[in-house]
Amino acid sequence: MKRWFRRSLERPAGPRITLVDRLGCHLCLEAERTVRKVSESTGFDWERVDVDSSPELQERFGDLVPVVLVDGREVGHWTISEVSLSRALRRRQRD
Questions:
Q1: Percentage of the residues of the chain whose pLDDT score is greater than 90
Q2: C-alpha angle with apex 52: 10 to 76, nearest 5 degrees?
Q3: Is domain 17-94 annotated with CATH 3.40.30.10?
Q4: pLDDT, tens digit, for every residue of 1-36?
Q5: Residue 41: its pLDDT value, please?
């Protein structure tokens, strides 16, 4: 007997991009432009998280912002290119 599994409608389709940044960070603005552009071209959702919103984030990423994560995995920090982010998204789709 086959079992069919359905994805919850609440789960985003495809990889999820997270930009960990902080206010007043000029590199974060550049990273946001890159993330926004790749997100628009691929159709994948993204979110922004303020590194200063929790002690855990500060400890993990405080000196690295901006940090770009795909499904929770770091794909770059300080600077991120459209090519490297797109490549990471393709890899996560295959997983």
A1: 78
A2: 70
A3: yes
A4: 444 444 444 545 678 999 999 999 999 999 999 999
A5: 94
What is the phi/psi pair of residue 16, to 5°?
Answer: -110, 130
By the 10 Å C-beta count (0-12 exposed, 13-18 middle, 19+ buried), 27 is classed as middle
Where are the chain's structural domains? 17-94
**Rounded CA separation 45/47 (Å):** 7
Nearest one of 31, 32, 14 to 89, comparing CA atoms: 14
Angle, helices 26-42 vs 82-94, to 10°: value is 50
What length does the chain have? 95
The Cα 76–Cα 79 span in angstroms is: 7
Q: What is the pTM assigned to this prediction?
A: 0.82
- How far, in Å, CA of 89 to CA of 94, rounded? 9
3-state helix, strand, coil in the chain (%, to 5): 40, 20, 40
